[in-house]
Design a protein that fits this description.
Low-confidence stretches: 1-5, 670-691, 697-783
Number of helices: 14
Oligomer: single chain
Structural class: alpha/beta
Largest sheet: 10 strands, mixed
Helix content: 10-25%
Mean pLDDT: 84
Distance between the termini: 63 Å
Strand content: 15-25%
Shape: globular
Strand order of the largest sheet: 8-7-6-5-9-2-10-11-3-12
């Protein structure tokens, strides 16, 4: 392990490292024999500083991976664990954006403004999604100390009003994030078959289609391998920091069919029996103690024996697809590990594999879904057993946007209670983690049970790299790192834990850990987005002694009220310290920027767009969800007529399109909701310049989320160009072409030249749903 106190000619506490002025003799003639200058030394960290690879999976529970007793085969994780360490009490924040911001800064998620996902940010300091300047990310610290830095995969830390082509890019990976290279997507999830990718801050298209064998996990792995090879070929003496964050296994669960088929029949026993099987394996591999108890299934989750028999084959297939997705991800991570081995740098690379940024996702509803966007918009009645059975063979494929049932999420969080979002219980926050560094860790194949948290990774990396915690970065005095280095436990399984106190909060589900004890209260349920919630003072608190009760199975609150009050007070103190207050349980309302109080890039009720503006994210556009609106497009129609897309938002899974076909303007709502809204009017096009006007129906929304469609505005080329080109339009987030729309080519993404105008009028529905999607838009629209 590197010694952080070793001598160094540079003062690394202040970054960037200051240049040293020349104070010796300056001669008049460079040929003078007295002319001497010190050599230019490339910036490098201390000799012996390791490469660093952090792998962070998405929405994978503690009990999913076979490395931690789960049913999903992850042989590469097991191989790393056999040569390193398993941490079985490592914790996250219970949600993606908060965990990622905490991981990359070494601070608690509210302390760095990420109390929720970016799409529900408010103006409160703990929930703003804005990273304070006095809490520089790890990548920036490492880069300014001489590391090469690169990020691949998911980035869900960019404030939504900063996702347009104009930035600002302060929180993009290659902007203020400290990464010199980025290849991935911005937002919470992406279509694995057809993602919206950025290289740096430039939108790029996938190199091939799903039909040609494309999958994002494979693509990002190829990019990561190529980057590492190039870095070592050109700078072999310079260590790297690679942050590898696949979109897997967040919904949609997309995986080649052959990977899912490997698990056929392996989940027919259902989620209750699966939990029993997992716990037995966990005890066998030693990731839970022999006396660990299986917690009871919450009453909100249906027993497998009570499930409609017609649904069981569909539900089993959902889990088969997820299992294949996780094994497929392990395979490609194994390719990256093999590349490090081929370069003979594996032993000198500190590798973290954090198997999940929170517990398994229970956002798929009790029955799961073929199209997640239906359930997220409150349109659940469509997916009957017959509907889902008809599509059972398409789960996981390009025609699906699928998610599994909450029963599977609960099972893959075995033996704990609850799941993602529920920060009060270990099912939402405890994630299996593997640390591998043969050159720095003597222990092999051992388990570490010290309490750890995701904020502990940054101080660990700094310690093993021999770098001090910076006091000033880019002229700003830094706040202290809030995590505790895990390096003390690397070679000492019995070392007393140093992270003794940790608060938890997500969607007002709250908890506190202190020296083995935990006090928790669950305020909300992940899949009940619009349920009426109790007053905070009415929440029921539970008390657990983790010294004897590993799984939080026995509530001691009634038996030890004084201990409970002690921990409740500790929670309140920590919550005040780290900007958790005020508590905010507005689950749906906060998606509406008008109500949440965060900035909006586009203000007012109209917007004008021009050709060549680049890919426009959802929050770069005028909000039309739950509002009546009109579009006016001025187009040029040649004498032979024209066909093509004028403007569209979203894709096959949710969205709308205004297009021309057979000389008429048409405007269908995309497949997922097409039966719910009245048909659109068609306007006959005539040659020469034409103004096409279209108005949406006034949406009378019965449910607060019934029509909150995740739209993106886009268009391709002028209609005139459609005469000579077969069009194919592409939407990176929900990328499959709309069923009724004219396709637009990939090459035409940034070349439309049709002016269009749009107005929006609120109809009194307060909720919106902001899924971060990205596509190119080159239209004009106005009010």
């Amino acid at each position: 392990m590197s010694d952080s106190k070793r001598t160094d000619s540079h003062s690394r506490a202040v970054l960037p490292i200051s240049s040293q002025p020349h104070t010796a003799l300056t001669t008049y003639d460079a040929k003078d024999p007295n002319t001497k200058f010190p050599p230019i030394e490339p910036l490098r960290p201390h000799k012996g500083a390791p490469n660093v690879l952090i792998v962070l999976l998405d929405d994978v529970g503690f009990a999913a991976s076979s490395a931690f007793g789960g049913p999903c085969q992850t042989p590469n994780f097991e191989k790393l664990a056999s040569g390193g360490l398993k941490y079985n009490r490592f914790h996250t924040t219970a949600l993606c954006s908060p965990t990622r911001q905490a991981l990359l800064t070494g601070r608690n998620h509210h302390s760095v403004g990420m109390g929720g996902v970016t799409e529900i940010a408010t103006s409160a300091p703990g929930y703003s999604s804005v990273l304070p300047k006095n809490k520089a990310p790890l990548a920036m610290t490492l880069k300014l100390n001489g590391y090469s830095t690169a990020q691949f995969g998911k980035c869900h830390e960019v404030p939504v009003w900063q996702t347009s082509p104009m930035g600002p890019f302060d929180q993009w990976p290659t902007g203020g994030g400290g990464f010199e290279y980025f290849y991935g997507f911005i937002g919470g999830e992406t279509n694995q078959w057809d993602p919206g990718i950025y290289e740096g801050t430039t939108p790029v298209e996938p190199p091939k289609t799903a039909e040609e064998g494309y999958h994002f996990t494979e693509d990002m792995t190829d990019k990561a391998i190529a980057w590492v090879r190039q870095q070592k070929a050109l700078m072999p003496d310079k260590p790297f920091f690679v942050y590898f964050a696949p979109g897997a296994c967040h919904a949609p669960h997309h995986v080649p069919k052959e990977w899912a088929d490997k698990y056929k029949g392996k989940f027919d026993q259902g989620w209750d029996k699966l939990r029993e099987e997992i716990l037995a394996r966990q005890k066998k591999v030693g990731v839970v103690p022999q006396n660990a108890e299986l917690t009871k299934r919450p009453k909100e989750i249906q027993a497998w024996d009570e499930v409609n028999p017609k649904m069981k084959p569909v539900l089993a297939r959902q889990m088969e697809v997820f299992a294949g997705f996780l094994e497929h991800t392990d395979h490609h991570i194994g390719r990256l590990i093999d590349a490090l081995k081929d370069l003979q740098i594996l032993d000198d690379t500190l590798i973290y594999v954090i198997i999940g940024d929170n517990g398994a996702s229970a956002e798929g509803t009790p029955n799961g879904t073929f199209n997640e966007l239906l359930t997220l918009n409150g349109i659940t009645g469509i997916e009957t057993p017959e509907f889902l059975t008809e599509r059972i063979d398409k789960f996981g494929g390009p025609e699906a946007y699928n998610h599994y049932a909450v029963g599977w999420a609960h099972a893959t969080d075995t033996p704990y209670q609850w799941a993602k979002q529920v920060a009060s219980h270990w099912g939402g926050t405890r994630n299996g983690t593997i640390v591998h560094w043969p050159k720095g860790i003597k222990a092999k194949g051992e388990i570490r049970s010290q309490f750890c948290h995701v904020i502990d990774v940054t101080p660990t990396v700094l310690e093993v790299a021999g770098l001090p915690e910076p006091t000033i970065v880019n002229g700003v005095q830094q706040a202290p790192i809030e995590g505790v280095s895990m390096a003390y436990s690397f070679d000492n399984a019995k070392a007393p834990e140093r992270h003794e106190l940790q608060y938890f909060e997500m969607f007002c589900n709250r908890g506190i850990y202190h020296r083995g004890w935990s006090a928790v209260t669950r305020h909300s349920t992940p899949w009940m987005m619009t349920a009426k919630l109790p007053a905070f003072d009415d929440d029921v608190w539970e008390l657990y002694d983790g010294n004897t009760d590993w799984t939080q199975a026995h509530d001691l609150a009634k038996d030890m009220p004084e201990k409970l009050r002690e921990l409740q007070l500790l929670w309140l103190i920590e919550a005040t310290k780290y900007n958790v207050l005020p508590l905010d349980d507005r689950r749906v309302e906060r998606f509406n920027a008008d109500l949440a109080g965060r900035p909006q890039l586009v203000k007012g009720n109209s917007q004008l767009l021009f050709s060549g503006m680049g890919r426009l994210s959802e929050n770069s556009m005028l909000v039309m969800k739950n509002k009546s609106f009109s579009i006016t497009a001025e187009i040029e129609v040649p004498s032979k007529g024209a066909e093509g897309v004028i403007i569209h938002q979203g894709g096959a899974f949710a969205g709308m399109s205004l297009y021309t076909k057979a000389g008429k303007a048409k405007s269908p709502i995309t497949s997922s909701v097409s039966k719910l809204l009245p048909p659109r009017r068609a306007s006959q096009f005539q040659p020469a310049s034409t103004r096409c006007e279209w108005s949406s129906p006034t949406m009378a929304v019965a449910s607060p989320r019934a029509a909150t469609l995740p739209f993106i505005m886009t268009a391709r080329r002028s209609v005139k160009a459609a005469l000579s080109t077969r069009y194919r339009w592409r939407c990176p987030q929900m990328r499959r072409p709309m069923l009724a729309a004219i396709p637009v080519p990939r090459s035409a993404q940034t070349t439309p030249a049709i002016p269009a105008y749009l107005t929006g009028r609120s109809i009194g529905c307060r909720s919106t749903w902001a899924r971060t999607s990205t596509i190119t838009s080159s239209l004009q629209r106005n009010g």
